[in-house]
């Protein structure tokens, strides 16, 4: 197989469809990943990534992103950046640096400003409304504020056998100021090696980091595991370890792709979705189920896809 792209969640389908056009034209995986993730970041109804992303406890949007080149193993990452558009592009630029390639907070913002990245207020009116609703529910109904942590994570393989991984997220909803999860952390939120393959994770970053899960999947693929076997084993093993040692495990979901274009996916939750497109397969959204440590999936129906769009665009109401 010449090229392929896989990403976490339904929200990535339009992005990987656009990115695949570049791969068809012989463009590089990095360009495809950046283009695809920027589309997710720019869509205001995706409330866990980029513009319109859900804010922290102080109603500030802090964004994390990362980019990794599977040929050189170069990494660029940012954490807790505010008021800059398209953090994936900032991370990609940072991957060109020999030193200082992971910047956070004001340091990341200074770097973005000096390198001409667009400054934008990333907090939308809709996100503020959602914040106020959840704040009220937290106080009045005792609901957990930490709901909403859906990272877009992506891996691409191009016609030159180069592989790239990218991530972008606004992180845990109503998180403490300065909190950073797994998404920009190499080996946890992402990892890619063009000689083997790549993986990316989404879910509760605090738990995903406890298993360095993306690196573990790539390691298993290097040992000869099929991507699906590697994904299932990594998620099942970490879920079991956390349950045994801590009494419970947070949400753990992963996607992976090897350097031959074969993909895998695994989750320990209900409702995980992913998006994939290859030279041989049209862009498809899949719905996942997990039973006894094995993940299965089937294409989303047109009815499900229509209901999804209706749900994410529905007005925010206060009881």
Explain what you see:
The chain has 319 residues and is an alpha+beta fold. It has one domain: Glutamine Phosphoribosylpyrophosphate, subunit 1, domain 1. The chain has helices at residues 13-24, 29-42, 87-94, 105-114, 125-141, 205-208, 213-222, 227-246, 302-313, and strands at residues 4-8, 63-69, 75-81, 102-104, 152-157, 163-169, 190-193, 197-203, 252-258, 263-267, 273-278, 281-291, 294-299. A hairpin with a 5-residue loop joins β5 (152-157) and β6 (163-169). α1 (13-24) packs antiparallel against α2 (29-42) and α7 (213-222) crosses α8 (227-246). The protein is globular, with a radius of gyration of 18 Å. The termini are far apart. The model has no long low-confidence stretch (mean pLDDT 95).
User: Pairing-aware structural class of the strands and helices?
Assistant: alpha+beta
Q: Please tally the β strands and state the result.
A: 13
Rg from Cα: 18 Å
Low-confidence stretches: none
CATH class category name: Alpha Beta
Hey, roughly how much beta strand do the residues contain? 25-35%
CATH architecture: 4-Layer Sandwich
N-to-C terminal Cα separation, in Å?
52 Å
> Which descriptor suits the 3D outline?
globular
CATH domain fold name: Glutamine Phosphoribosylpyrophosphate, subunit 1, domain 1
- The CATH superfamily is identified as (Glycosyl)asparaginase
Secondary-structure element pattern, one letter each: EHHEEHEHHEEEEHHHEEEEEH
Number of domains: 1
Q: Percentage of helical residues?
A: 25-40%
Overall mean pLDDT: 95
Largest sheet: 9 strands, mixed
If helices are DSSP runs of H or I spanning 4 or more residues, what is the number of helices? 9
